[in-house]
Design a protein that fits this description.
The chain is an alpha+beta fold and about 260 residues long. It has seven helices and eleven strands. It is globular.
């Protein structure tokens, strides 16, 4: 944080001269109490500014997925509801409740198990945040930008969801394989922790497993772009993410 501007180098996201530091992951997910080892990366003003509303949305989405037994996440949730309860937060409050809707939980056999509350996914807001996180972590562990010709892809890992397709076995295998990688924690890891591994044949290809509130899992990948897009990675679109009540209903049904 104390570096001189001329020493910051390029923005890790776009390559323009960096003029500030950006937090990876967004520091808003930590609530009122910030850990001492927040990760910062060099960023230009354009990439660092204008993301606060999307960062807040990302926090809300992760909190909605279920945070049972996580005291740190409970504190963040309490802080969030205090903030939207303020008179001047009417717009944020209205936006939050507009995204929340009732959902039916369906078992693997098609039986309706009950009703819960879910939060609508807004992919155009989620994708840039996860790309920032993956690019930032790549820089942290390589001390360089992801080279041109390489891109970022990510996947939200399986949880009790509605309107979601099957997750390919190779993703599940990678997710479980990374259990053997050392845990990298910001703070005590109760809000954010991750694991990573590097492809031995191409150091620009890295895989990151991200865990938010120890309840929401993402897989992030860096890899070479191809003509029709990016690495042919499977990337289904979930329409909604359900609350912890969904997990409880599925568990009670033996799912």
């Amino acid at each position: 944080m104390g570096q001189k501007l001329k020493d910051r180098g390029p923005c890790v996201f776009c390559g323009r001269p960096a003029t500030s530091d950006d937090h990876i992951p967004p520091k808003t997910i930590f609530g009122d109490t910030k850990p001492s080892n927040l990760i910062t990366v060099p960023a230009c003003g354009g990439c660092n500014n204008g993301c606060s509303l999307d960062d807040e949305y990302f926090k809300q989405l992760c909190l909605m997925s279920g945070i049972d037994g996580n005291r740190a996440a409970d504190d963040v949730m309490a802080s969030f509801f205090r903030s939207i309860g303020r008179e001047q937060a009417r717009g944020m409050r209205r936006g939050f409740y507009n995204r929340v809707s009732p959902l039916k939980v369906v078992s693997s056999t098609g039986s309706i198990l009950g009703d819960v509350t879910g939060c609508r996914m807004e992919w155009q807001r989620i994708e840039p945040i996860l790309e920032r996180i993956v690019r930032g972590l790549f820089w942290k562990h390589t001390d360089r930008r992801l080279p041109e010709g390489y891109g970022v892809e990510w996947k939200m890992m399986p949880q009790p969801m509605v309107n979601v397709g099957e997750v390919p076995l190779d993703y599940l295998s990678t997710f479980r394989l990374m259990e053997n990688c050392p845990v990298q924690s910001v703070g005590d890891g109760s809000v954010f922790q991750y694991r990573y591994m590097t492809n031995p044949t191409d150091p620009n290809m890295m895989t990151f497993r991200l865990d938010v509130y120890r309840a929401v899992g993402f897989m992030g990948f860096t890899g070479r772009r191809i003509a029709d897009g990016f690495m042919s990675i499977y990337h289904p679109r979930r329409e909604t993410i359900a609350t912890t009540a969904t997990k409880n209903l599925l568990n009670s049904a033996g799912e």
